[in-house]
Each structure stands twice: as structure tokens, then as C-alpha cells.
Amino acid sequence: MSHPGQPPIPDVPEVDIDDAERLISGGAIALDVREPQEFAQGVIPGAILIPRGDLPERIRGEIPDTSAQIVAYCAGGVRSAYAAETLAGLGYTRVVSMAGGMNEWAEAGKPVATAGQ
């Protein structure tokens, strides 16, 4: 787990849940990179669900615009940092990782939807 101010991967931009919410409200794409069994615990409304291991094969079909603003998240913020690194390697230029992940998002009372809504 990362410490505040210390992203799990150097050079991967990280935002807190409030900044993530502002970005998503402003049109950024919420990208859930958790595993399918975790989706049942709830998702950020409108999120695209692609497990981290499936990103290289699926991302272009789901998000073809490599300049789209993307907020990647997982349960706690580590897998999303690795996902952001993967996406940068695939040419995506505006990807951030949400520190604290879905756990912190839900604990803060932010909007949570059932997967598929």
C-alpha cells in the first residue's frame, strides 16, 4: 500500500478520491481494473470494467481515443497504478491512478452503483 504523497509506481500520476470525482464529473472516463468477482462490491457509476490483466487486449475496443482523460481505479490504488503505467506504454497520454481505490471511495460515501448500471 502506498503512503500519502508516495505513488506506488514513480512517474505514475495519482489523484485522491475528491480530485478523481471532479475529473469524472467533468467527463473523464472511470476505468475499473479490478477482477470480475470484485465488481459485485460496487463500481463508480458509469465506469468501464476491464481487469488489469485484460487491458492490452481490450482497451482499444473500449476506449479508442488515446488522448481521453482516464481515471483508473482498483480496490486500494496499487493495481490502478500498474494499469496507468500499462496504458501509458500503450500510448494513452492522460491517465491517472486513484489513490485509495474503491475502498476509500465507498468509505467516503461517494456514489456507488451495481456493476452494469
Explain the overall architecture:
This protein has 117 residues and is of the alpha/beta class. The protein has one domain (14-107): Rhodanese-like domain (Oxidized Rhodanese, domain 1, 3-Layer(aba) Sandwich), CATH 3.40.250.10. It contains five helices and five strands, in the order E-H-E-H-E-H-E-H-E-H. The protein has helices at 17-25, 36-39, 55-62, 78-89, 101-107, and strands at residues 14-15, 29-32, 48-49, 70-73, 95-98. A five-stranded parallel β-sheet has the order 1-5-4-2-3. Strand 4 (70-73), helix 4 and strand 5 (95-98) form a beta-alpha-beta unit. The longest helix has 12 residues, at 78-89. The model has no long low-confidence stretch (mean pLDDT 91).
Provide the β-strand percentage band. 5-15%
Q: Which structural class best describes the helix and strand composition?
A: alpha/beta
Question: What's the Cα radius of gyration?
Answer: 13 Å
- SSE order: EHEHEHEHEH
CATH H level, superfamily name = Rhodanese-like domain
Number of domains: 1
What's the pLDDT, averaged over the residues?
91
Major sheet: 5 strands, parallel
Distance between the termini: 29 Å
